[in-house]
Write a structure and sequence with these properties.
The chain contains three helices and seven strands. By secondary structure, it is an alpha+beta fold. The chain folds into two domains: 1-30; 39-166. Strands 1, 2, 3, 4, 5, 6 and 7 form a seven-stranded mixed β-sheet that branches. The longest helix has 26 residues, at 2-27. The chain starts with a helix and ends with a strand. The relative contact order is 0.15.
């Protein structure tokens, strides 16, 4: 009888340890995945550049509102600032300008109209849904002004030396 109690006690202890270990591992925070090499946090920018990034993000919403209402992207001077240019190639639209010692690129990627509509993407810094239901992929990129400027619209600016700026 005594050996049964001892065995049962050890089994209960083993189950308790296993249960606690399982709970701890389940609720333990997972390490964040490292960002791709072409992404850098805005915290690496100067205070003025960070302020401009936030202003630019607000201006993006104004451009998106106009696009959702008129079905056309606005002229850069109407949304951004003098000296900015807009380029379009197929599904890719970008606005390019210089400010705070950096060259800035805002890239909008529209959905392919030939593809089946996808479900609404999550609403975050990189995914926006227009008032007409159009889902966009939106990214903001920087590069030093002393680098050669690209003359074409690109789907992946990192291949041309741009760094995507992220708020995370």
């Amino acid at each position: 009888m005594d050996s049964r109690r001892t065995t049962l006690s050890w089994l209960l202890v083993a189950f308790a340890v296993f249960g606690v270990g399982t709970l701890v591992s389940r609720f333990k925070s997972q390490p964040a995945e490292p960002a791709p090499s072409w992404q850098k946090p805005i915290s690496e920018l100067t205070v003025e550049q960070q302020r401009f990034y936030r202003e630019l993000r607000a201006q993006l919403r104004a451009a998106e509102r106009e696009r959702g209402t008129t079905k056309r992207w606005p002229a850069p001077a109407g949304i951004f600032a003098d000296g900015w240019v807009q380029r379009r190639q197929g599904l890719y639209v970008n606005y390019l300008g210089e400010r705070e010692g950096l060259r800035w690129l805002v890239l909008f990627i529209e959905p392919d109209p030939r593809a089946a509509p996808e479900k609404a993407p999550p609403e975050d810094d990189e995914h926006h849904t227009l008032s007409d239901g159009t889902a966009l992929h939106v990214t903001v990129w920087t590069q030093p002004v002393n680098e050669p400027a690209t003359e074409r619209v690109t789907a992946f600016p990192a291949a041309e030396g741009w760094v995507e700026r992220v708020a995370r």
